[in-house]
Amino acid sequence: MDGLLIDSEDIYTLVTNKILHEHGRPDLPWSIKAQLQGRPRAEANAIFSSWARIPLSEDDYFSKQSKLQREHFPSCQPLPGVPDLLKNLSNAGVFLALATSSHSDNYTLKTSHLSSLFSVFPESQRVLGDDPRIGAGRGKPAPDIYLLALQTINDSVRATGGAPQDIQPEECLVFEDSVPGVEAGRRAGMRVVWCPHPGLKGEFRGKEEKVLAGRCENENAEDDHEVEAVDEPWSKLRGWPSRYEDGWGQQLDSLEAFPYEKYGIRV
């Protein structure tokens, strides 16, 4: 969601830089920001704190950050191409779910004024970063959030008698802007569209195939489904292990003019 559907990643950067400047620190570089994107809140905060080394307690930093976020998040706007993409997918009868690392409090700040945009995601098919069904330490790049999102779709379809059998991971398409998110989608056995921020794109220039294969943090894994040990119904889903240049990852510079036909979607 952040940096993919709405411009909240730039607002995160604005807020962070304001706090850094108060303490004589430089702007947050993309080499660090790239490690924060898409990750669970606690993990991202640990990475940032290790780099920033500002003289604030954790509580004081979060207080400043929260105040600035409450001020700026309500100004979030959709990124180019997103309103048409969501409208076209919905009108084409594609089952949609939202899977975001944002916790419910920030999610509300970012989206309450964009209810029309997010109305394509049924409430039961929105999986947020503080969803209790996702265990501690199981955020992106672990596949859990996407497997759970798929389960919410299957539960809904099953309840309405909308399909004769469950949708499988290999039938899903994940949209992501973050590198950990791409890895999460690939480890879930799903196809992935990666649409990175220009700053992130520059940081991973020359490493695109590694990103698209979901191998930036999981280089040597042959099949993550063999090692995932999560006792949840949705964790029994199985997709395909990722491979370099297997065609299951695509990079786009924008979600404008999305190639629906490539994915068998008629709009």
Molecular structure report:
With 267 residues, the protein is mainly alpha-helical. It is built from eleven helices and five strands. The protein is 40% helix and 6% strand.
Can you describe this structure in just a few lines?
The chain is mainly α and 267 residues long. Helix content is 40%, strand content 6%.
Q: What is the N-to-C succession of helices and strands?
A: HHHHHEHHEHEHEHHE
The tally of helices reads 11
Number of strand segments:
5
- Report the mean per-residue pLDDT as an integer: 90
Strand content: 5-15%
The rounded distance between the terminal residues' Cα atoms is: 22 Å
Helix-and-strand structural type: mainly alpha
- Major sheet strand order: 3-4-5
List keywords for this structure.
mainly alpha; two-stranded parallel sheet; 5 strands; three-stranded parallel sheet; 267 residues
Write the layout of secondary structure elements.
Layout: H1 8-22, H2 30-36, H3 41-52, H4 58-72, H5 82-91, E1 98-99, H6 104-111, H7 115-118, E2 126-127, H8 144-160, E3 173-176, H9 179-187, E4 191-194, H10 198-203, H11 208-212, E5 249-251
Parallel strand pairs: 1-2, 3-4, 4-5
Helix pairs in contact: 1-4, 2-3
